[in-house]
TrEMBL record:
A GO term, aspect molecular function: DNA binding
InterPro entries named among the record's database cross-references: Lambda_DNA-bd_dom_sf, Ner_HTH_dom
Coiled-coil ranges (or none): none
Family: Belongs to the ner transcriptional regulatory family.
Name under which the protein is recorded: Helix-turn-helix domain-containing protein
Gene3D superfamilies: lambda repressor-like DNA-binding domains
């Protein structure tokens, strides 16, 4: 955040420029944001995303994907009304 300030930017201004919230920029700054916002943050302080977040990239410079396990249980939500019931 200090690097933004010395360049005359703030999280609020960068968020407005990117069309998101300040909180989204803060999450990106801590490494928990979207790759798009991480890229915007890196470019705002004259770095590449690989330089700012090296832990998110492999040795070839490719972004490492998240390892979140998808929900593939096959269970569909039932809802609160049967198809034959009219609202």
């Amino acid at each position: 955040m200090f690097q933004l300030r010395i360049r005359g930017l703030s999280t609020r201004r960068l968020a407005a420029r990117e069309g998101c919230s300040r909180q989204a920029i803060s999450a990106a700054a801590t490494g928990f944001g979207s790759s798009h916002l991480e890229e915007a943050l890196a470019h705002a302080i004259d770095l590449t995303p690989q330089e700012l977040f090296p832990e998110h990239y492999d040795a070839r410079g490719q972004r490492i994907g998240w390892t979140r396990v998808p929900n593939r249980s096959g269970h569909k939500a039932q809802g609160n009304v049967k198809k034959t019931d009219a609202a």
